[in-house]
Amino acid sequence: MVWQSLARLQAEKPSVIATTQACDPNLASCGVSGEEAIHAARGLRSVAHGFATLEEGGGFGMDVDADESFRRLVRAFVDGLDGGPPSGTRET
After folding, report:
1. Which one of 16, 71, 78, 86 has the fewest beta carbons within 10 angstroms of its own beta carbon?
2. Is the CB of residue 38 less than 8 Å from the CB of residue 16?
3. Longest CA–CA separation in the chain, Å
4. What range defines the domain where residue 51 resides?
5. Which residues of the chain fall below pLDDT 50?
6. C-alpha–C-alpha distance, residues 45 and 64, integer Å
7. Is 89 within the bounds of a domain?
8. DSSP 62
9. Digit-coded pLDDT (tens) for 35-46
């Protein structure tokens, strides 16, 4: 089922797969691989998309450097990667 979904996604939205694959070496350097890498790539894409959407919509109206906020956000996300699922979650 997952592989069928990935094949469909590859056909319909190849840029999504390319982005995820581009993340793989960087995630591996953080000790994240396999299924955890997929979760991490989704999370990072979601963080970036949410930030960009807020910024594009004028959601950061204060006179503080939004680029610095983004750097700190990404750093906090990356610092949370340790190669395993978050504590308190179940493996299925």
Report:
1. 86
2. no
3. 48
4. 2-79
5. 1-6, 9
6. 23
7. no
8. S
9. 888 888 888 888
